[in-house]
Structure formats: structure tokens, C-alpha cells
Amino acid sequence: MSKTVSKAKLKELLGENQLKDKVLYDLIENYDDNGGKGTYDWMSDILTHGCVSGMIGDLVYYTDTTAFYEKYKEEIWDLLEDTRRSFGNENITEVIAGLNGADDVGSDEQFKNLLAWFAYEETTRNIANELGLDF
Questions:
Q1: pTM over 0.85
Q2: Deepest of 40, 90, 112, 115, by most Cβ within 10 A of its Cβ?
Q3: What are the pLDDT digits (tens) for 107-127?
């Protein structure tokens, strides 16, 4: 399996929804000229270490993650519903309760932060799946 991702292939995936486009633009922006290997590695890092690692500069501070949540709220809840269906959960709260960091949520900001990180990571995972990448 190829460990490269072309910029052209990423651009082909644009246009489905704003959240996916945001992640794709981040991937395209962080693309390097190392034959697409940099983008593969970047995606791998997100999927391995998550947004909690701080590697997504736009999703470090609560002001940023809550703004991200508010901007992409509809797509985030659609992703939660898709995840609920794919795992056979009875309701979305079961999905949320199972997210890494859910036990530490004690405020509205922390809740939105959790869902913003989930959405970014899950969207990255979905893009990787569309590209036939396995991490």
C-alpha cells in the first residue's frame, strides 16, 4: 500500500461539507513536496496522537475549540449519529461517553472541546478511509 497522498487526490474530495473541507484544506496546507509522504505522516500522527497532542494549532485553546464547535455544529452531530449507527449504540450520548476525555468534561467549554476534537479526528479518519489508507 502506498504511503503517499497527492494534493490532487485531496482536492478531489473537497465539496461534501464545510467540516470535511476544513480538514482537507489543513491537509493540503501541510502537504510537503516529499511525494505526499508528509501528508500521510501528518494524518497518521493525528489518528495516533489526536488533537490533544496540540498538533492542530487551531484547536488548542477553548476559545478556538468552542468556535470550531459552533461553526461546524451540524456536521459534528451528523458525525456523532453516523458513529452511533456504525457501532450500534442506542443513542448519541453513549458515543459521547465513550470518547477519550469524556470523563474529564465539567463545563460547556470542555464539552465543545471534546466534540471539536472528535470531529476533527473522525473526519481525518473518514478521509483516510476514502483514500484507502490504513494506519
A1: yes
A2: 115
A3: 999 999 999 999 999 999 999
